[in-house]
Design goal:
Number of strands: 14
Number of domains: 2
Shape: globular
Strand order of the largest sheet: 2-8-7-6-5-3-4
Amino acid sequence: MSTSTIRLTKRALGIQPSATLAVDARAKALAAEGRDIVNLGVGEPDFLPPPAATEAALTAIREGFAKYTVAAGFLELRQAIAEKLLVDNGLEYKPEQIVVSTGAKQALYNAFQVLCEEGDEVLIPSPYWVTYPEQVRLAGGIPVFVESDAKAGYHIEVAALEAKLTPRTRLLVLNSPCNPTGAIETPESIQAIAEFAVRHDLSIISDEIYEKLVYHGAVHKSPAAVSPEAKRRTVVVNGASKAYAMTGWRIGYAAAEPPVAKAMAEFQGHVTSNANSIAQKALLGALRGDADAVAKMVREFEARRDYTVRRLKAMPGLEVPDPQAAFYVFPTLGDLVGRKVAGKVVRNGDDLTVALLDGTGVAVVPGACFGRPDAFRISYATSMANLAKGLDRIEQALRAAK
């Protein structure tokens, strides 16, 4: 009898699991065991999709829209996305420059696969979404992290980008608004970042999935809108998950120059073919539907943001930046380090996360997976009642810290 085992590739063995999904799974498992868990870890809107998206999906099902579409998505949807990009972002694309994918995550993966060669260095501002470095590595690239300052609101400094440049640098990842920090770059900052990329002959992968979730007068600007040359270098990635609360539909898209879009569509054709046809119809409905549902959600998120930031700033031991977008707050530990919270000595965000979940039943995400071991992420994509309950428990634990 053979005792040999299946050999996994270095690629598979090198993948780090998603910490955000792991926290959500652990919180749900504890809740299933009967624990009273307040989940402030998951980055998922607690709203229903817009009625126009649901109705479009139901109509598509009734009419039997259940066959393959072209790999890049059916034409009417790509036309609607091009219209959205023109109206919302001032960006002119033709339908053949749009690729519809199984979520924005696949759009990002496609982009890295067609733009990143083995050994290429990719600048990733830190803190960063957990998936960026893994996708870079899967494409054979080397993630190069560019630190930002919590006290300055985690904004990207061009000087910090310049300091990390080498002859092997080929790509810059831009995520504004940002997960996990909730920071959004000003139009002036986006201008400077785009000019930096042009100056150094870099391509930009711009993840704009949170673009509609901005508060208190903050303005989103795409680097592709800075200049024709910046647009030529930029892949704009977006989707339905956040703005339309359609996380489970798994529908996203990218817009790029014709050669890049063509390569992404052909690559996708060998990976998944087209995105789910019903989800494509749902996205079309969302794009062409009434904007009131999105506006209502944004108003509610803004109120939750204000409440969460106010509560956290009143708690001892934390340093809390002011996020202006998305639905996250990303505090650092401040003088909590070395103190005991809920019976556990806290040395970093991982320790605090374990202490809060085991000791108080509140799930948050440790900052190490985002590149900041001294921080943790709270999501306010949950009801105000749930927020109050979770923040009450956190405050009680921090005030009792020794």
